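Readers of this paper often ask what the protein records in our data store actually look like. Such a record has a labelled line for the sequence and another for the backbone structure tokens. Nothing more is needed to write down the fold, since each code stands for a local backbone conformation. The record that follows is passed on verbatim for readers who wish to inspect the format.
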Amino acid sequence: MRPRVLHLTGSFHQGGSERQALQLARLMREGGRCRVDVACLERRGALLEEAERAGFGEIEEYRLTSFYDLNFVKQLWRFARRLREREIEVVQTHDFYTNVFGMAGAALARVPARVAARRETEGMRSAAQKKVERAAYRLAHRVVANAEAVAAQLSAEGVPRAKVVTIYNGLDVARLTPPAGRTRAEARASFGLPEEKPLVTIVANLRHAVKDHPTFLRAAARVVRAVPEAAFALAGEGELVAPMKALAEELGVAKQTFFTGRCKDVAGLLYASDVCVLSSRAEGFSNSILEYMAAGRPVVATDVGGAREAIVQGETGFVVPPGDDLSLAAYVVGLLERPAMARAMGEAGRRRVLENFSCEAQLARTYALYEQLLEGARAPSGSADEKAYSGGA
């Protein structure tokens, strides 16, 4: 009998966690091996329309105002009741807020397989938030890390290694392929970008300082000294847009810098780009890096999270220390000045994504995890598998 699975996402905003959650749920529904539902904490965002097209029409919302008020308790009981009514056998959460709410509700409903997530190493959560999340991990049977670097961080924080499983993000390469017949000039025009200039792009939300756009902009100022015609695109939205525009002005690169806002056409933007950058101070396993590589673009990224698990140094791109705008700029200049090398690295990166980070690989590992947990739940009390995942976090 096909198990009934519920994926809980924070929202449908166009972030890495949200896209991964929706993509995995959609692939599972299409595969037919599970009966799949989706629920959320906030029923809005650019991906909601995509979710509805995928057949998730009745997406229930459990809107929270705090973890410490009466509304949280009401929503938690409502969620647990719904899990019991639908006879959900697997609950999988995908970020901090859904971990806390989803694992508590799933434990309350006695869901037999509870799967939490960790998608970053450091830099995103306060000490108080980490304490709350560790409590959620104690209620989970497994915690999915999206990189070995993240798994190592979880172990360092006291989560039993037997409870942690690494499943890399899966990337839908077709989504990064531009329409046939479209020119780069047309792609650039759609974003208001200059037609002829070498273009360096970063795709990262401007909501979290951990993405470290100042390092990107300081590197841009260095790049224009060697390649004066270079232009820079920052794709993302958030409250940091205004201060980053002010910094670009201060650094003297405002005229070469283009803030494109929320990017609905990532394939088009990457097709228009020559070199792609990620300047984060912390990451898990960056979707942006995989997208850059899948689009056939050379990557320069900071050495955080799983960057080295994706990028082969000197073959598909380069990794540099976080905050090192000097090294970042030097590699970008080298790629802009050697377009043949840049193209070869981009092609190697695309091959690497196809071979190692496909949706099919992610889906297969997730199915295997579910099967293991459900078999363990049916095993006699005290079985080896039960002991492996019942330890504290």
